[in-house]
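A quick word before the example. In earlier lectures we treated sequence and structure as two separate objects. From today on, think of them as two lines of the same record. Here is Phosphoribosylglycinamide formyltransferase written that way.
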Amino acid sequence: MVALADSMIGDHPARPVLVLSNVPGAGGLEKAAARGIPTAVVGHRPFGKDRAGFEAALQAELERAEPDILCLAGFMRVLTEGFVTRWAGRMLNIHPSLLPKYKGLHTHARAIEAGDAEAGCSVHEVTAELDGGPILGQGRVPVLSGDTPDTLAARVLPMEHRLYPQVLRRYAAGDKTPVYLP
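And the structure line, produced from the sequence above:
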């Protein structure tokens, strides 16, 4: 979130209008507020298994802010097809693997266990298929001998911070040509 917000200065075609979290007290909320970006929280826990209620509350917050593009970053809830459809073509996500490999969780451990020489991150349009939307960019890092999921994650994170802002800039300007970083 910080990398995205900090990249949207000067001639950037997008401006942050809201940082919305499902985790009360998330660190990004304070960082957003310090940058003058409005924040909101819709905790998922009070909704229990009522996904429709949770998503209706999310939708209400988003409608108040009127964003053109939603950028998911660390939002660890699977959204329903109905919610995703409302934002089709206007919702991006960053995922810590070279999609289509390793959709879902534990991506770094899975890359190491598979003996992959490279790992990385992907920015994609969000569709109803988990981590299955069109890829808009990827960044690669080597998997090193002795890597653990934590050491690999620590190397992928700076690549995420480089990739996502570049993809967002192009996407907001109407360019969906994928970005590939070495």
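Notice the following. The longest helix spans residues 149-172. We will return to this example when we discuss secondary structure assignment.
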